[in-house]
Amino acid sequence: MDYIGLSKEISYALRHAPWEYELEMNEEGWVPVEQLLDALHRIKKWSNICESDLNEMIEKSEKKRHELEDGKIRAFYGHSIPIKILKEEKMPPDVLYHGTARQFLESIKENGLLPQNRQYVHLSQDIETAENVGKRHDHKPCILIIDAKMAWNDGIKFYFGNEKVWLANTIPSRYIRKM
Questions:
Q1: Which CATH number belongs to the domain containing residue 52 in this structure?
Q2: Domain assignment present for 81
Q3: Using CA of residue 123, residue 127, residue 129, residue 132, what is the dihedral sign?
């Protein structure tokens, strides 16, 4: 079973194009598992998958992109669809990181970190994850250090994504410094 491929397919369906799969998503991003399986069964490559395959995919994933609960599934983060996926507000670690392309530094210095085409700004709990994210856009990314404790104390809301990813609506530049 190609669990990485399955994860990518499901991520695309749940994060970016539920309408292409005829999925009915609630305001918290949940979709009935049966509905997702019906949609995936129309694709030859996924015609035989079942709920246990979804569980296995989630279990084997290093990035923990999805969750299954009470016959429903959702993506944790990364949505570009217009509904706002509600997250649990939570106090972040003192410091978080953000990997970015060097070409964006001037804009970040002026405007802070903005969600761009996503619903939230994605922050990393460790430098390695931030570096891997930054490398998607620049072979020598810049790692930014976010003073999450000060931002939280000043009223910036943070949301728990998963054990490596934290989310925020925006991060003003005063809480950001280059590593």
A1: 1.10.10.970
A2: no
A3: positive
> What's the domain range around 113?
95-178
Contact 54, 12 (CB under 8 A): no
Tell me the CB-side half-sphere exposure of residue 41, using CA atoms within 13 A: 10
How much is the mean pLDDT over the chain?
Answer: 89
Q: Give residue-wise pLDDT tens across range 77-125.
A: 767 666 666 677 899 999 999 999 999 999 999 999 998 767 789 899 9
- 3-class secondary structure for 53-71? HHHHHHHHCCCCCEEEECC
SS (H, E, C) the chain: CCHHHHHHHHHHHHHHCHHHHCCCCCCCCCEEHHHHHHHHHCCHHHCCCCHHHHHHHHHHCCCCCEEEECCEEEECCCCCCCCCCCCCECCCCCEEEEEECHHHHHHHHHHCECCCCCCCEEEECCHHHHHHHHCCCCCCCEEEEEEHHHHHHCCCCEEECCCCEEEECCECHHHEEEC
146 has which bridge partners?
A: 96, 176
Q: Tell me: do 62 and 103 sit in the same domain.
A: no
pTM above 0.70, yes or no: no
- Give the domain-ending residue among 42, 75, 108: 75
